[in-house]
Amino acid sequence: MFLKTKQDGSLVEVINLAPLVDPFVRHLEGRLHAGEELQEPEQFAKAELLFPSGEPLPRCWMDPAYPHG
Question: Is the pLDDT of residue 36 over 90?
């Protein structure tokens, strides 16, 4: 799955989807897609990522208290 950064719109390939949908996890492992060479995995804060369409990630993926918070 691909997301993009809020900072500059760079595409990030999410390596493992489980942390993405877990509201208790604040960071996930991904790879920037820039240039022709495969980039090394790095940590990305979920709060700094969006869907490629520009939509924010669902609150249920971000907030452990959802829907009670």
Answer: no
